[in-house]
Design brief:
Blueprint (H helix, E strand, L loop, with lengths): L2 E3 L5 E4 L2 E4 L1 H4 L6 H4 L3 H23 L9 H17 E13 L4 E11 L5 E7 L6 H17 L3 E8 L9 E5 L1 H19 L1
Parallel strand pairs: 6-7
Antiparallel strand pairs: 1-2, 2-3, 4-5, 5-6, 7-8
Helix pairs in contact: 3-4, 5-6
């Protein structure tokens, strides 16, 4: 089934159906964006940087990259490569669109892979900003959408943070799925009640 992000990036097209983006359904922001002056500029800059890091690491994981000119991106990529080499056995998916017909939502999961020593698969979400509570809701959403659309069970939800200003201070946080699954479904129900 063909899946793509709409041109205006407001929804996903899955076959002939339109699905709202997970990021629109779950509108939780990290605390850093609520307390700073000029939050729109901070948010825009953070999103642009995160997009660059996601792109460069995805290309690298797919073996489609030759060189990186930006020194800051080089540092982030080096840290990511080191972490992947040390902890990841294999990737099953990289930047894969997943969806739930039941909950009427779609999104792009950063990575699904096997962590060395694990039998099952993990959602691996790459972050450049802070690791806040709302990420657990998003990861639970990816778990639901992956399991429904790909028919493969997810055992762990991991966020891997590579801070822009200190990339060598990589952090990994595991989120407990059972704590967030119901909250994600409630977000979907609320979104549907407003938009249908």
């Amino acid at each position: 089934m063909k899946a793509s992000l709409s041109e205006d990036k407001t929804y996903y097209l899955i076959g002939k159906d339109r699905f709202p983006r997970l990021s629109n359904v779950v509108t939780v922001e990290g605390p850093e964006f609520r307390t700073k002056k000029g939050q729109e500029e901070v948010l825009k800059e953070t999103i642009e940087w995160g997009t660059k890091v996601h792109l460069i690491t995805a290309l690298d994981d797919q073996k489609k990259i030759n060189e990186v000119i930006n020194i800051d991106l080089c540092k982030s990529l080096e840290v990511w490569r080191d972490w992947v080499e040390k902890y990841v056995k294999s990737f099953k998916a990289i930047e894969k669109i997943v969806f739930s017909k039941r909950l009427w939502v779609a999104g792009t999961v950063d990575r699904v892979g096997k962590i060395k020593g694990d039998k099952g698969y993990s959602i691996i979400d790459l972050k450049t900003g802070s690791l806040y509570e709302g990420i657990g809701i998003r990861l639970a959403g990816y778990k639901i959408m992956w399991e429904e659309s790909q028919k493969t069970k997810i055992d762990r939800l991991l966020a891997v943070r590579i801070p822009r200003n200190d990339p060598y201070n990589l952090q990994v946080k595991e989120y407990e799925a059972n704590k967030y699954l119901k909250r994600f479904e409630e977000c979907c129900e609320l979104y549907r009640s407003i938009h249908t």
